[in-house]
Structure formats: C-alpha cells, structure tokens
Specification:
Elements (H helix, E strand, L loop, with lengths): L23 H13 L4 E5 L8 H4 L3 E7 L5 H8 L6 E5 L10 E7 L12 E7 L9 E5 L2 H6 L4
Parallel strand pairs: 3-5
Antiparallel strand pairs: 1-2, 2-4, 3-4, 5-6
Length: 153
C-alpha cells in the first residue's frame, strides 16, 4: 500500500472496494491521466458494485466519471487513449450528479493472456432502457459512427 502515497489525485479512501486488490499500474495510470488533464472526477467502483465482473473483482478495472464542462467529451476521450489502458469503455449516458457534463468511463489493465499486447478492447455502453437502468446495457464498437450516434462527438 506504500505506492498510494505517491498519487496526486487519487487515494485509497475512495470507493475502490477491496483497495488492497487494486492493480498499482491501473491506479497510477488513472492518477496520471486525471492529473495531466486537470479533470474533476468521481470513482464509482473498483472491486465491488453493480458493475462487477472478473476484471473488477481482481482489481484490474475501475469505473469512474469525469467532468467535461471545460472540454469536449471527444477531446477527453482522445486524451485517454494516450495512456496504456488495455480496455476502455465509454458510457455517454452515465449519471454522476456531482460532475458537470459527465462522461462515464471504464478503464482496465486486463492481463496480456486475455488481450494481445498492443491491442485494446474498446466499446460504448448504452442503457437498454433509459428509464430503468437496471436492465443493463447494449454494447457497440467504439468507432466514429457510434461516437456521433451517441453524442460523444
């Protein structure tokens, strides 16, 4: 847990779940992204929560929101690609009441055994039912057409 003291934006008191499981490379990379881009943010979950899955349970994934009130959502997303996350999910309709013009994101450092080196898993998640979020999401490829279709561009 020593490495947590070197972070500039994140700390171990945020809602990570089982904080000791969080992958240091993931957290340090996210911290650098948030610091470099001076973004307001909110951590939703790390190892716990309704968005859990194998990567979350093992501490390799985090769901969070960033405020895009000073910058276009697309610009924030492009900046995110400069960091070595192996999986990036975009949730344009994510709700973060504390953030202005929020963009919900998933970032992970999935093991290389699951994804070849240099290849990223990319997607957009859209609620199946905008009035009942418990119905889950439909997933689409992260490409220009879908970024326009769902209001990121």
């Amino acid at each position: 847990m020593e490495w947590w003291r070197h972070l500039r934006k994140l700390d171990h008191h945020m809602p990570w779940g089982e904080v000791w499981k969080m992958n240091p490379d993931l957290v340090m990379c996210l911290d650098q992204f948030l610091f470099d881009n001076s973004l307001d943010f909110q951590i939703l979950c790390g190892t716990q929560g309704v968005h859990s899955g194998k990567l979350h349970e093992q501490g390799f994934a985090v769901d969070f929101g960033v405020s895009c009130h000073k910058r276009r959502r697309f610009d924030v997303l492009i900046d995110l690609f400069r960091y070595p996350f192996r999986g990036i999910g975009v949730y344009p309709y994510g709700r973060y009441p504390k953030l202005k013009n929020p963009l919900a994101l998933h970032c992970d450092m999935r093991p290389l055994t699951e994804q070849p080196f240099g290849v990223r898993k990319l997607w957009i998640g859209i609620p199946k039912d905008m009035t009942d979020r418990s119905q889950g999401n439909n997933y689409y490829g992260l490409n220009e057409e879908n970024l326009k279709r769902f209001g990121v561009i």
